Amino acid sequence: MKTIEKEIRNLIKESENCELEFKSAKGGFPESFWETFSAFANTNGGIIVLGIKHKDKKYIPDDLTEEQINIYKKRFWDCAHNKEKVSATMLTERDVIDPIIDNNRILIFRIPRASYDIRPVFLSRNPFGNTYKRNHEGDYHCTETEIRQMFADAHHTTLPYDNQILINYSIKDIDIPSLKAYRQRFSLKKENHPWNELDDFDFLCKLGAYRIDRENGNEGFTRAGILMFGKTESITDQVCAPWYFVDYQEKMSNNLQQRWSDRIYPDGTWEANLYQFFFKVYNKLIQTLPVPFQLDGAIRYEETSAHIAIREALANTLVHCNYSVQGNIVIIKEQDKIIFRNPGCMLVSVDDFYTGNHSLCRNPILQKFFTQLGIGEKAGSGADFIIKGCDDNKWNHPIIEEKVQPDRVTMTFYIKETDLDQSVPSLSPVCPKFVPSLSQVCPKSVLSLSQVCPKMEKVHKDSAEIVLGLLYKTDNMTLFSLMENVNEKNRSRFKQNILNPLIEANLIEPTIKDKPNSSKQAYRLTEKAKELINS
């Protein structure tokens, strides 16, 4: 029989990673509903279920009547369209349903992520003190800084942050070697372009690195111009981007004592602008890419779809970064994956990013700089190139995660070939030989998975043994850490074949039991498993 969570997700047609919040409505329409409404709208959306109390893994129905359900629906729509109650509503009639599950009437609300131009979604007329977001612990009050940043995002198309004029900056703040290198690439890409005949200053004006504000007469270098071509000290000045820090870390060694085998960061030996950082890092990323360049005739090499995918992901990280908030741009290269991380939140949802339905760039001038070189394509095609590169090379599609406190976006590329389509469940997951199984970690253990976990298919027991061995050595581990150690990239497949059978057998348990879909969820051995292992 399906669990109540699965039934609800199927009814509302939402994925497993969508947050689910249960609220009792026995004493009336709960006021806490609106705090969660604001939190879901300002974060990644979610589902609110009225009429069920979820406590200690138990679902306790309120036994709501049809009359109560109708009263609550009317109460919701009355408040949803009242600016004194909430600043905006994104729901339509189809987002509110009132099914009967196990003979119990409930009310389900699918709260979509609010678009950037209507965030923050807040309660009453005052956003300060009445705006919420969602983290692993639940709903929390947004800080004044978070609220102001959401307002800035809502109006960023009027004057993007990277297009703002910086007062008292001059050509002396430009790193001339970086500019010349850019112009050389531009000339090779567009041999007969009229801009090639311009001097450096006029060229920068055409690009948008320097502009005149026709309304007030101000003129000067734009923030984008300094970020792309500036000297390090000019970039990190309080006027430009005081928290700017770019960091590339290469972790290719099996030596756990070695933090990284190579690193690129502003160490004073180079001007750490975005142009220099991009090409230094891109050249590092493609050196050990498991796909060679293609020879075009006998003269030059062409990028493959794999190189283009990595190139687009790197450009995407730089042009969508929020340079007004604290946080570093971090690129981490490991043996089987590349991690791209930047501060700030996405202006569109992950689904919209992949489909390209709403192409919206946080830093359009920086994007223009890259597109002039044929990098970071517009109109949503960047995501298309990323997906094509993964499909062509049998890589799993990258995982995109948004985190809060502080806001940051992470894209993880798994650059290891997989022989199976991502939608097809694995029949023979390969377990890395260097990860010890339970029998290796605890040779005296007599725990038999066949006996205590009869639902576990035989082909998955080696992977399950590794999971138990890892959790025996460690207090707890996240889902993705466990997946990495058994060489599984598909979250749903891992949960279905390994995690859920171990949970149902009471061998492992989540650390945050009341919020099973928390972004900070981890897993640990149960007391039963410890007793069986140590017996």
Taking the sheet with the most strands, its summary is: 6 strands, mixed
Rounded mean pLDDT is: 83
Counted beta strands? 23
Spatial ordering of strands, largest sheet: 14-13-17-18-20-19
**Which runs of at least 5 residues are low in confidence (pLDDT < 50)?**
295-300, 419-435
Class derived from helix and strand content: alpha+beta
Number of H/I helices: 19
Radius of gyration: 26 Å
Overall spatial form: globular
Distance between the termini: 33 Å
Strand content: 15-25%
Q: Give helix % range.
A: 25-40%
Report on the structure:
The chain has 535 residues and is an alpha+beta fold. It is 34% helix and 17% strand. The strands form 8 sheets. A 6-stranded mixed beta sheet has the order 14-13-17-18-20-19, covered by helices on one side. Strand 15 and strand 16 form a beta hairpin. It is globular and about 75 Å long. The two termini are 33 Å apart. About 4% of the residues have low confidence.
List keywords for this structure.
535 residues; alpha+beta; six-stranded mixed sheet; four-stranded mixed sheet; 34% helix
